[in-house]
Amino acid sequence: MSQFINKREDVVTEAIDGVLALSGGALTRLDGYPHIRVVLRSDWDKSKVAIVSGGGSGHEPAHVGFVGKGMLTAAVCGDVFASPSVDAVLAGILAVTGPAGCLLIVKNYTGDRLNFGLAAERARAFGLNVSMVIVGDDIALPDLPQARGVAGTLFVHKIAGALAERGADLETVTTAARHVIAGTRSIGMSLDTCRVPGSPKEDRIPEDKAELGLGIHGEAGVEQIDFAGARASVATMVERLAAVMGEGQHVALINNLGGTSVLEMSVLAHDLLGSAVGARISHTVGPAPLMTSLDMQGFSISVFAANAAELALLKTPVPIAAWPGVSEVRPIAVAALPDGLTPIMPMPSNHAATRAFLINCCNVLIAAEQDLNALDAKSGDGDTGSTLAGAARALISAIDRLPLSDHTQLLRAIGLELSQTMGGSSGVLLAIFFAAAGDGASSGLPMREALRAGLARMQEIGGAHVGDRTMVDALAPALEALGESMAAAAAAARKGANFTATLTRAKAGRAAYINARQLEGHVDPGAEAVARLFEHLAA
């Protein structure tokens, strides 16, 4: 798969210059490209302890994105997933270190330890006061002699940076950094590996698996486990975190490894707070991309048992866009619906045959979920099946609240239920259909004619007609043939649905934005749902 890069050898320098150009003058780089890539604060005057970190690129926004007042003084960048050279690290130290000294924050990888360590020794030979701490927060590989440094490093950056900005001396800053390191634990999980620029992607993780403890450079994790959704994934990680977490309240850093959507990250945050350790998490950082692994579809959780002073340092505001701040975990606030929007449902009543009929119809849509999603992926956004199945499940859940013995009120109640539980335009249109059908039935129309009245109202408001490649292509002929028999209605619905596969232009719905080549040969998913429903009823 292609990537938005120019040449592999230029990707890091061009990315750095892109950040610098948009920093508003807040960031500066040292000369020496491409061998020395050091980004530092433009306002730095060497009057306080300097905080320097870095490592391989590909973890953006770490580390350049955290250079600024209250966090890093300088970041030293290597190639993608490769430690910077000793000379590059030394250049960074010499550029920012004054009489107050410098703290190096190093992630526990052999290359980083060696290059930063030797650079520190050479800086000391110049007479500079340099100390170094090594972060090893990853608990995924318990048998590893030296734990890897991963996203928990951000806790160290923030607390050490805040202390240095307040004027603390090097010994105080170093001691605080070591205390944070000792109390931080992290673990990650991913559904896929990352793509290193200019290199083929390693497809190591099967479709139905997740890898626990995948490294931020794409290293293999401790094991591949069956993937069973977000909640189960979080529970697996929490089980391991809980075994090493200290007592008391913790701050959780929820890190996007680069390729996980914002929507998914919010679900993961929800599941973390509802997990076995959720009650022990008082504050969070994120969810956000903080220390990524290029485009890896994964996430990590870091926990730190911050005391009151450390929590205050974490909360100290910084003018750094990549740092999302610290949020306090509070119960979800729920406000009542405004007057007039609270639904007034008719009195529930039972009717065994109607109950069975409705549940069977709903089960047809639930069973078709994946097939309809696959069809919709050809001409839309791939969610028609999930939308209909979700509404069907909601209707089953509401079955005891429905007026099953009064079909006129039942149609209206179904319309109301769909308007609340079914998303998208299809939910609105079907709510209109059932509400109008209920109105027709209340005026004395037979059921078939009431349903046709509902269809007419739906077409009037939605604008779709037969031939526009929508569910109307199956629903309209089915209701017309319903006067003959259910079998005739099913045959008409199937014929209408199949007809949509021959239409290369949609005049309504999301498929109207799709080109003819993508539409040809694919049945409209809404029409297919209608056909399957009538076929089930005729069976």
UniProtKB/TrEMBL annotation:
EC identifiers of the protein: 2.7.1.121
Domain DhaK as annotated: residue spans: 7-323
Source species, domain of life: Bacteria
Keywords: ATP-binding, Kinase, Nucleotide-binding, Transferase
PROSITE patterns: DHAK, DHAL
Enzyme class (EC, first level): transferase
Molecular function via GO: phosphoenolpyruvate-glycerone phosphotransferase activity
Pfam family, one: Dak1
Domain DhaL as annotated: residue spans: 352-539
Protein name: Dihydroxyacetone kinase subunit DhaK
The species this protein was found in: Mesorhizobium retamae
Organism taxonomic ancestry: Bacteria, Pseudomonadati, Pseudomonadota, Alphaproteobacteria, Hyphomicrobiales
